[in-house]
Amino acid sequence: MALVYQPMMQLSGILFSLLGWVLSCLTTYLPQWKNLNLELNELEIWTMGLWQACVVQEEGGMQCKDFDSFLALPPELRISRILMFFSNGSGLLGLLLSGFGLDCLKIGERQQEQKKRLLLFGGMLVWISGITAIVPVSWVAHSTVQEFWDENIPDIVPRWDFGEALFVGWLAGFCLILGGSLLNCTICSTEVHPSSVHYTVAEQQDQCQRLETETRP
């Protein structure tokens, strides 16, 4: 029964991993990590991402300005850049390795042990990619909450709120972790105990002997 569901689990793992990787790349470049809604000027909404800050006007226009210096960014945004790059790179490498380790791929059919290792290593990389995608998103969300409830900041000063990119990043991390877990679970389901193998071989030999005795005149 495990062998029947194994290709389905592998395909599901690859699809979830691919979806998570695409969402992770999208999260990296979206400028909506933080939203600043000005109550005094409701016609404008300021957003901030890892690379640029943008202002969205009610007429539909959007103007963005790239950050001049990497060192001038807050610590959470600097570390988030590095972690998101690592997440995207490890996710892509994990997808490639897992793809070569799929059972439905005809390449390397006689090298099952190598394909299992590729699938296992690829699944681990995808799982790590999901963790490194959730960490920066959660860190920025935590710092945003701290700044929002900071009593030292006057109430008249506008405060940053969660942006859409944070929710996309959480979804990306969940999909990557789920995809990597499914790929690793297929390795466990392919293990066959020696006792079951000996039992199957003995049963086949008995059937062959019965057929020979029945066909004899």
TrEMBL record:
GO cellular component terms, semicolon-separated:
bicellular tight junction; plasma membrane
From the record, give the transmembrane residue ranges: 12-30, 79-97, 118-142, 162-183
Instruction: Kindly provide the name given to this protein in its UniProt entry.
Output: Claudin
Q: Does the keyword Hydrolase apply?
A: no
Where is this gene product found?
Cell junction, Tight junction; Cell membrane
**Gene3D superfamilies in the cross-refs:** 1.20.140.150
Q: Which organism is it from?
A: Mionectes macconnelli (McConnell's flycatcher)
Per the record, membrane topology reads:
Multi-pass membrane protein
Under the heading PROSITE patterns, the entry gives: CLAUDIN
Function, please? Claudins function as major constituents of the tight junction complexes that regulate the permeability of epithelia.
For this protein, the record's InterPro entries field holds:
Claudin, Claudin_CS, PMP22/EMP/MP20/Claudin
Q: What is its main location?
A: other
What Pfam family is a match, any one? PMP22_Claudin
**Is Membrane tagged as a keyword?**
yes
